[in-house]
UniProtKB/TrEMBL annotation:
AAA domain residues: 20-149
Official protein name in the record: ATP-binding protein
Pfam families for this protein: AAA_14 (PF13173), DUF4143 (PF13635)
GO MF annotation terms: ATP binding
PANTHER family on file: ATPASE (PTHR33295:SF20)
Protein species of origin: Grylomicrobium aquisgranensis
Keyword terms: ATP-binding, Nucleotide-binding
Chain ranges of the DUF4143 domain: 212-346
Length: 411
């Protein structure tokens, strides 16, 4: 079992606080395991097992509790008078009207509630209304490179990073070593479960009338997911996606594309990144970029010969910035682009990402946007190069692998 120390630390910080802990993230990224690890932590600190109520709604043993009234009765019957209780509800979105249960538990002073879900739909609609200002979201991602490095006991970071870029960081996939066929089979199962089962469940919850469901074409969903996977890091418009799909023989409108793209972002397969004006920091109503939650999944969706080092590296950096707690946008300054504008605690950092700076034209292209920025926030170029690193007129050129392994390089 891989110990997810950083996420455990976050849960420990929020323990016993009067706030709902909501853990979200792509299927099989480790949410259920995290809950189990936190329960083990509670027991180690002296909490009795009787004070812990844990329900995984993917377990048939709890099928009866998919009815919210039965679920509430089950939990309240197990609350101990005068004791702090810890309630863990795993994949709670499977319960119709689950927000009523969560809200009722929240108002009980002696109950500390933790819930997980594999779909952003979890935090939309009634739950967001019920719990506005009363929950914190911990968005969980597959293994960071430093976690991956520890798990495989790697000695050569650059060599292990190439492996990480190829197979991704899904916790169980890491345990399959470098067996590409077994990893593909495992990732195929995740991918198909999300696209067929999870999104179908989401549509049922959205509207019980089958004639009013918006997502009903799995082939179209897969085609759009392939397109997004092939264009990670590139600005992509809905019109462009619609044009691509139409060119394959299936006519589709940008409106329909928007619905299907949203359906792919909600289960955390893809993350949408909106551009921002670097000078004024206003969000721009222009085309967005998309990044995928796991490169192994991308390499499964696409033929492996389509592996693109530069954009794959950019994808890894984006996910790492999220792990480090940044709000991330792409940046525009005039006609130039900054790969990432990262914000935390009202402070900004700028990042450019490129596989190599050995070509002079590439070096100048990556430097140019930074040279146009007039503020003094840190500016960093991340590259796989191991030479010509350092400070160039206030712009730091840093090896990306070292940066991924050592957050202190951003200090």
């Amino acid at each position: 079992m891989i110990i997810r120390k950083e996420y455990l630390h976050q849960l420990e910080q929020w323990k016993d606080q009067k706030i709902i802990k909501v853990i979200t993230g792509i299927r099989r990224c480790g949410k259920s395991t995290l809950l189990q690890q936190f329960q083990d932590f509670l027991i180690q600190t002296g909490i009795s097992e009787k004070q812990i109520i844990a329900i995984n709604f993917e377990d048939l043993a709890f099928e009866e509790l998919l009815d919210y009234q039965k679920l509430y009765a089950y939990i309240t019957a197990r609350l101990l008078t005068g004791k702090r209780m810890y309630v863990f509800l795993d994949e709670i979105q499977k319960v119709q009207d689950f927000e009523k249960v969560v809200d009722s538990l929240y108002i009980k002073d002696s109950v500390d509630v933790y819930i997980t879900g594999s779909n952003a739909f979890l935090l939309s609609g009634d739950l967001a209304t019920f719990l506005s200002g009363r929950y914190i979201e911990i968005n969980m991602l597959p293994l960071a490179f430093r976690e991956y490095m520890d798990e495989v006991n790697g000695e050569n970071p650059d060599r292990v990073f190439a492996q990480y870029m190829k197979f991704g960081g899904m916790p169980y996939a890491v345990q399959l070593g470098q067996d590409a066929n077994r990893i593909d089979t495992y990732l195929e199962g995740i991918y198909n479960t999300i696209l067929i089962k999870d999104i179908e469940d989401r549509e049922k919850r959205r509207n019980d009338d089958p004639n009013k469901r918006r997502i009903n074409d799995v082939t179209l969903l897969k085609n759009i997911s392939r397109f997004l996977a092939s264009t990670v890091g590139s600005p992509v418009s809905l019109n462009k996606i619609a044009g691509y799909i139409t060119s394959t023989g299936r006519k589709v409108s940008p409106t329909t594309v928007a619905e299907y793209v949203e359906a792919l972002c909600e289960p955390y397969i893809f993350y949408r990144v909106q551009p921002i004006n670097v000078s004024g920091k206003q969000l721009l109503d222009t085309v967005c970029k998309y990044y995928i939650a796991d490169l192994g999944l991308r390499n499964y969706i696409l033929p492996r010969q389509n592996y693109d080092l530069g954009f794959s590296l950019e994808n890894v950096v984006y996910l790492e910035l999220l792990r480090r707690g940044f709000e991330v946008n792409s940046g525009r300054i005039g006609m130039l682009e900054v790969d990432f504008v990262a914000k935390k605690n009202d402070l900004y950092r700028y990042y450019q990402v490129t596989a190599s700076l050995t070509d002079q034209k590439t070096f100048e292209r990556e430097m140019k946007p930074f040279e146009q920025i007039k503020d003094n926030y840190p500016k960093t170029i991340l590259t796989l190069d191991r030479f010509s690193l350092g400070n160039y007129n206030g712009i730091q050129v840093v090896n990306a692998v070292d940066w991924l392994l050592d957050p202190g390089l951003d200090a």
